[in-house]
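Our collaborator T.R. sent over the components below with a one-line note: 'Predict the complex.' Nothing else. No constraints on interfaces, no templates requested, no preferences about which chain binds where. So this is a plain run: every listed entity goes in together, and whatever single assembly comes back becomes the starting point for the next discussion.
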Amino acid sequence: MSWEPVIGIEVHVELRTDSKMFCGCAVSFGEEPNVNICPVCLGLPGSLPVPNRRAIEWITEIGLALNCRISPVSVFHRKNYFYADLPKNYQISQYDVPVAHDGWLEITVDGATRRIGIERAHMEEDTGKSIHLGGGGRIHSAEATLLDFNRAGVPLVEVVSRPDLRSAAEARAYAQELRAIVAELGVSDARLEEGSIRFDANVSVRRSGSEDFGTKVEIKNMNSFRSLERAIDFEIARQVDVLEAGGVLVQETRHWDEEAGVTRGMRTKEGSSDYRYFTEPDLVPMVIDERWQDEIRARMPELPAARRARYRGLGVDPQTAGALVGAPEAFRRLFDEAVEAGADARAVANWITGELVAWARREAVDPSTVAVTGAGLAELVAMVAAGELSASAAKDVLDGMARGEGSARQVAESRDLLQITDRGAIESAVDEVLAEQVEAVQRYRSGETKVVGFLVGQVMRATGGKADPRAVNELIRAKLDEA
Amino acid sequence: MPIDIDISHVARLARLALDDDQLELYRRQLGVILEHAARVQALDTEGVEPTGHPLGFTNAFRDDEVRPSLDREVVLAEAPEERDGYFVVPPALEGP
Amino acid sequence: MSLADLTITEAARGLRERRFSSRELVDAVLERAAQTEAELHAYLTLDHEGARRAADQADEELASGTDRGPLHGIPIALKDNLCTSGVETTCASQILAGYHPPYDATAVRRLREAGAVPVGKTNLDEFAMGSSTENSAYGPTRNPWDPDRVPGGSSGGSAAAVAAGSALGALGSDTGGSIRQPASLCGLVGVKPTYGLVSRYGLVAFASSLDQIGPLARTVEDAIAILEAIAGHDPADATSWAGEVPDFRAELGRGVEGLRIGTVTELSGDGYEPAVSEAVASMVAELEARGARVEEVSLPTFDVALSAYYLIAPAEASANLARFDGVRYGLRVPGATTEEMMARTRAEGFGPEVIRRILLGTYALSAGYYDAFYGQAHRVRTLIARDFARAYERVDVLVSPTSPTVAFPIGERTEDPLAMYLSDICTIPSNLAGHPAISIPIGLDDAGLPIGFQVMAPALAEPLLFRVAAEVERIAGFDARPTGVAP
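Returned assembly:
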């Protein structure tokens, strides 16, 4: 009997506002310890929090980008737990009325697209950092803990998915898509290695076909997409092993050990998961009304999913559309300009995601400095369609355009790459070749039709490669068959 | 209404290291106070919303502007233990 | 008469008439402190040097024509739960022994900007939790009217200082009556402003949704002068009122003719000392004689206000006081692990009343009990606000005793927390509703102990509150001075 994994992902996104969530201390990384601290973020007696307006606008952007509903009235709560790097020993967070809730995100794995539910996105503050001395940095055997509060109070958005993911690969795709969205919005550095975006996974397994949920295990400490996928795969296998051996799983939090490639249980906290949430009395409710939402929406860039849908609507095939969504911004703009100039979207998309991306990589050129214009690209595509340029000639033309040698036609002319489109000229060249190659013509007529390729080659040589080989081919066949 | 209080659990949640005599004393005192406080339960509050700010205003924000932080030496001067610019505490027993 | 016995208004006039200097005024106050502190213990810290320096500066400014207004050069005492930059701030707790904040509370900064001279930090019930100033880790404060009795609390140090003349006015904080009740027990005027009118930034929080800073003074006019200096929007406090501050003097002198005054059924009867009830009734009759229309109003939810308060305030306190953990400042009691260090620090650093309330609040918020206790208390709070709103459809202000009793003997209620909590029965409803209220002294009982009269008004109706208070003050003609201590 087989097992089905049930996975939910919690993502913490640090916003890159200038100042912290509730005070004016700078948000910055890699500084000396305890330099960006003040009475508020250090929890000194008497200090009070005041929320950062930009952070609220940015979480609203994230909520809208994830197709969430924005709560018209939203409040902060205190989440109470004692920990040395939590200055007030409560975290200002949100509980029953988060800024955003009930959204979704689409992921595509192995060609299948699935919609993953988003339960909520809420605003909170980050903690400080603990450095555990001795015992190789491990918590259990440390001899002392050093505390740095520079990170304390940095705005943090927590996005909680529904348990809709069914494989480690889906979980990875979800995480990557979410990262792409916040990066696109420009609200976070979204760097896994720096911890500015962090993923925790809730994993359980159940008998295939069952609607019940198994015992949930939370996994922490994955700092790459690869380790997220590996950790979930490991955990699924571990849980199945335990259950198939007749064992029982405990609800717990496990750490991913990257080096060993295993998850390990952490020491559990007896009865301390009672966070005693209550409304933060130092803050007043936030009203994010329709008007404010509209202002925020108007400032948002086009997001990957919307862009992909738009490309598909223009006739671009799914794979090319996906490649274009991931292409550099300058090239995406080039696409829009070329289409605007009347170019065939599918052809332009192919040229950009194929040849242009490859050219920029090969030449190690910053895409935004490539000399190609949208109108130029439209001209190129049109010339290919009209048979004025062969596919290989067009690549040469694009190379010239990218080097700033001029428009598609200018490059084609200066590099002498234009095809002969005058039917009369091609016909006389064909007649000459057929008259010369008597033996080949004989062989064709005796049934050896593949010799036509040789004849086409002769015509191409005679025209200096500028005739359209397809047209030449047709013409030769027509002349030999009619005779 | 007699009120059942798991006082050692409450003390643990509140991070208070109390001995058995203290726990027993507080358990009794809390029982008396809570019995009085439980009078709030006699009121019908069906459909009543909890109170927000008495003046009922919303949306108090600050602009995203950086203000000077405190001088680290001044802050660390108040710390029970510090080292190399860090606050220092004994090792943690458990993760957050 | 010593300069220390002047009202703020009188002293301000004297300073401008060059009859004495701020330095002389401050010296007189410090001299009075030297004579009385051994017995009263109103102060935890006296800042002789800082006060004299500030007085000299005030004198220089006044001499050079810079006049910062009615508080310029006036010695003021600060409750020790208000942060003062570089001056020890303990909240009367061991856990903050030796703590020097790196900043001034907004109210303190505004007082300094108004030219006031802070003379020291006054005693209180630890973290403002109490009604007698007996819950101080540094010993109780005594009442200048009778040193065997409490001054009330939690702002008992501020009240004792102003009553004794070791300050001309003071700041206190009022969460459930902590300004008004000690003002009543010490024969002073005490004001709890509308919630949000005075910034709480730098006030060490007890119960954030209830705390307000306010003045203790000898007259209504003095109290207004202090409140004018500290009121107004503060961007550092998200709960502070961003609208216009009402003109506190707008209605002064208009008397009470035509005003509708409500007496509160629920704030009378058993448990109220006869002398208190009689003095209040007699004042109500005087107001009626001057044209006020008096009627009795019932606010049934007042009967459970105390219960709601003793769930809400401890719940908020349990979180507010979580930060005192031995990590970043204050006391640390060593332990093998972070957890043990924190738990020992807190158990040894907090006094019994604080621990009691932290446990109470933690319980009220904990899983399984939240809805029955904390959640229900908050809904009841809404009902109390509705009762007030209904009452204010019929009357303009409500009046009551400030405290059911006069100052009680030291030690009388320390073993019975509930009896102590009942001291605040008249003052708590205004905190729950966020409304302003004032206590005005109206007389002495047979033992010579002061009796206070409370006036309550709707949110932001301070001008009306002061109008009635000023009339009560004028009628009472209360000018007695404490007799309990030298000189």
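Summary for T.R.: Chain B has a mean pLDDT of 91.
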